[in-house]
């Protein structure tokens, strides 16, 4: 039985991954903002076979409570094997362009809050020489695109942070998993026009589950995004800057 | 993932917007819609899951389980949860769906809205008989608990109510205890209608599940078919987990011309020979027994872009020599239209609580018809001309073309039902059959 903490547990992708762990009979500590949604997910995972499920209300931007949430999770589950950081927002790029305050708020949510949580968890895992930190970033972090570079910057910065953290923790045996989904059909992307590259949250959730079990370093989900992004990254900047991606 | 809000028969085409639901606690902005209809998995064949010119409330995100009581066998879940998802959770715990249709890719809400039936109708009746209660969200914002004792009128109208009485948010129903995931099946070759009636009578006593597949192109006398009868089996020494993986898929629409009498006959020949060589009695996992077509994802695409009709009727059994179903089969055979997907089953006399429920005592026939335009519509109208005077009915979940006269003849309580419809809710089907 694994002991798993999930931040942003009501996100569609996190739920899909959590259902896999629940079916295995793992114990889960779920953190989310909305109490009604949180309760729905707690009930769901219990019915699906989780050994234990506890919910905890918190806004990830409430940095002062990050220490508390970690402590509570360890206390209640009796330790922690996996921490999945899955919260995030999809910023309104145009609004961010018009307002630094808006951009700053998005960077807090999608980058700094992850750094705060990962720092606390990393120190614990480094001391006990075990544990897996998994963070949902994005293919958008691989290159800045005009249509969503604020989101891309937050996710890209997170990936670089995780890369360094992984190298540091590898000496102690703790793992850092950087999960980079492509387009996923979820409520977060409800307003985005769909194309054939969109994957279901079930597909991505299954990929996250496997990546955590195998302690992968970096995974693209679905797999083909590794190759799409390899090509996107090779495009010379003098051409890329003329694109409208 | 493309957003295709179409029905399983891919006919008719409809233009509509969709509003996707993710949480039953969320407020649905009914005031911003003219007309809404819940849409689950789109497994209704015709237009009962379409709302041309209006909005669909897509429920696939309402898939949370709420409580599973493994002692009493009661499950409460959100109405968008699919049977496929539920089976993965309940079968390993020794429980099964009380009633199961021919596909596991339907939502619980859809199962209730169409009051689905299965191979155990002679024993268990429809799915609606096993529903204990549900919450109905009306466009006024009211959330009503409906059960046989509370809001009983709405309870009865919603079972088989084609999604028109409001949005079911969650549902509670009874499960069926099983000794294991396998089915003990006997396959009996049959020839002609009287053979089918004889086998049904003999089998419905001792077998929980019965159904017959047959060659629908040969008329009532000489057709060849296979009669399947099964019971839940006690687990053998080694419990094998059910195979749930999909096998093959039809990735794109085939040209309609590929499906003609010759290919159908070849298919039927193959299907018959293949199965006739199987042992007469075998243990099988539940999935291939209940959901044989689920192993071919998107099998509806074999009918091409024009789509297809399914015609499912029920008529009284009648007497040998004067069977109403024989006249229907003769008409189909004469037309040369029709398909390999012909199914016969005897419905029992257990009444459903649903006001518009389709099953009634008698024999039910289900057949696919590739859409060949007016020629096909004319044939199906002729079939209605046989079913109406026989006191039969046609299944709205599979219909895309029945006339208002037919519907109102088949469902005499439709006016009583109409009083329970939510004023914001409508469907292409409902507008058509009440026009």
3D architecture notes:
The complex is a heterodimer of chains A (245) and B (435). Chain A has 245 residues and is of the alpha/beta class. Chain A is 49% helix and 17% strand. Chain A is built from 9 helices and 9 strands. In chain A, the strands form 2 sheets. In chain A, strands 3-2-1-4-5-6-9 form a 7-stranded parallel β-sheet, sandwiched between helices. A two-stranded parallel ribbon of chain A has the order 7-8. In chain A, strand 1, helix 1 and strand 2 form a beta-alpha-beta unit. The termini of chain A are far apart. The mean pLDDT of chain A is 96. The radius of gyration of chain B is 21 Å and the shape is globular. The two termini of chain B are 36 Å apart. In chain B, 25% of the residues lie in helices and 24% in strands. An 8-stranded antiparallel β-sheet of chain B has the order 15-11-13-12-18-19-17-20, with helices on both faces. Chain B has a 5-stranded antiparallel β-sheet with strand order 4-5-9-7-8. The longest helix of chain B is centred in the middle third of the chain and has 16 residues. By secondary structure, chain B is α+β, with helices and mostly antiparallel strands. In chain B, helix 9 packs antiparallel against helix 10. At the A-B interface, helix 2 and strand 8 of A face strand 4 and strand 5 of B.
């Amino acid at each position: 039985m694994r002991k798993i903490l999930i931040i942003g547990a009501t996100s569609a992708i996190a739920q899909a991954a959590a259902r896999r762990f629940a079916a295995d009979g793992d114990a889960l500590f779920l953190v989310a903002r909305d109490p009604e949604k949180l309760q729905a997910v707690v009930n769901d995972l219990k019915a699906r076979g989780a050994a234990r499920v506890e919910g905890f209300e918190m806004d990830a931007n409430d940095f002062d409570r990050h220490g508390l949430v970690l402590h509570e999770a360890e206390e209640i589950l009796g330790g922690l094997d996996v921490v999945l950081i899955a919260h995030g927002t999809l910023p309104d790029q145009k609004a961010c362009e018009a307002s630094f305050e808006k951009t700053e708020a998005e960077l807090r949510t999608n980058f700094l809050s992850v750094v705060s949580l990962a720092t606390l968890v990393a120190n614990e895992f480094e001391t006990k020489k075990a544990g897996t930190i998994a963070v949902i970033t994005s293919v958008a972090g691989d290159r800045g695109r005009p249509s969503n570079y604020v989101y891309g910057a937050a996710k890209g910065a997170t990936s670089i942070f995780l890369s360094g953290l992984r190298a540091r923790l590898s000496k102690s045996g703790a793992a850092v998993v950087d999960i980079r989904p492509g387009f996923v059909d979820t409520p977060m992307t409800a307003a985005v026009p769909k194309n054939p590259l969109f994957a279901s949250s079930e597909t991505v959730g299954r990929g996250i589950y496997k990546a955590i079990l195998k302690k992968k370093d970096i995974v693209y989900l679905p797999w083909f995004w590794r190759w799409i992004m390899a090509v996107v990254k090779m495009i010379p900047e003098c051409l890329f800057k003329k694109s409208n991606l | 993932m493309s957003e295709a809000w179409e029905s399983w028969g891919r006919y008719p085409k409809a233009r509509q917007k969709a509003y996707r639901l993710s949480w039953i606690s969320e407020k649905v902005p009914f005031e911003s819609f003219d007309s809404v209809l819940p849409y689950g998995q789109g497994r209704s064949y015709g237009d009962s899951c379409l709302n041309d010119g209006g909005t669909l409330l897509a429920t696939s995100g309402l898939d949370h389980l709420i409580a599973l009581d493994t002692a009493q066998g009661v499950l409460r879940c959100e109405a968008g949860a699919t049977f496929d998802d539920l089976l993965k959770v309940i079968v390993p715990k020794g429980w099964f769906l009380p009633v199961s249709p021919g596909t596991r890719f339907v939502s619980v809400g859809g199962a209730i809205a169409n009051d689905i039936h299965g191979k155990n109708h002679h024993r268990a009746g429809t799915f609606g008989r096993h529903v204990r209660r549900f919450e109905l969200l009306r466009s006024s914002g009211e959330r009503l608990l409906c059960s046989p004792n509370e809001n009983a009128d709405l309870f009865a109208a919603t079972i088989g109510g084609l999604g028109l009485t409001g949005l079911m948010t969650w549902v509670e129903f009874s499960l069926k205890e099983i000794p294991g995931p396998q089915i003990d099946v006997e396959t009996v070759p049959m020839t002609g209608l009287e053979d089918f009636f004889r086998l049904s009578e003999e089998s419905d006593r001792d077998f929980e599940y019965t159904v017959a597949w047959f060659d629908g192109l040969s008329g009532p006398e000489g057709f060849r078919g296979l009669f399947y009868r099964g019971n839940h089996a006690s687990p053998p020494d080694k419990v094998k987990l059910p195979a749930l993986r999909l096998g093959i898929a039809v990735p794109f629409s085939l040209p309609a011309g590929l499906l003609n009498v010759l290919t159908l006959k070849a298919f039927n020949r193959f299907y018959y020979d293949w199965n006739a060589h199987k042992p007469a009695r075998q243990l099988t996992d539940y999935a291939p027994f209940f959901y044989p077509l689920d192993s071919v994802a998107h099998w509806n695409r074999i009918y091409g872009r024009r789509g297809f009709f399914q015609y499912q009727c029920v008529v009284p059994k009648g007497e040998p020599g004067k069977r109403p179903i024989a006249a229907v089969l003769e008409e189909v055979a004469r037309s040369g239209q029709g398909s390999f997907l012909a199914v016969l089953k005897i419905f029992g006399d257990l009444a459903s609580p649903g006001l518009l429920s389709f099953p009634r005592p008698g024999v039910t026939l289900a057949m696919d018809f590739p859409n060949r335009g007016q020629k096909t519509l004319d044939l199906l109208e002729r079939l209605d001309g046989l079913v109406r005077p026989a006191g039969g009915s046609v299944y709205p979940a599979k219909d895309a073309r029945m006339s208002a006269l037919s519907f109102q003849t088949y469902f005499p309580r439709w006016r009583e039902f109409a009083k329970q419809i939510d004023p914001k809710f409508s469907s292409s089907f409902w507008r058509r059959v009440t026009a």
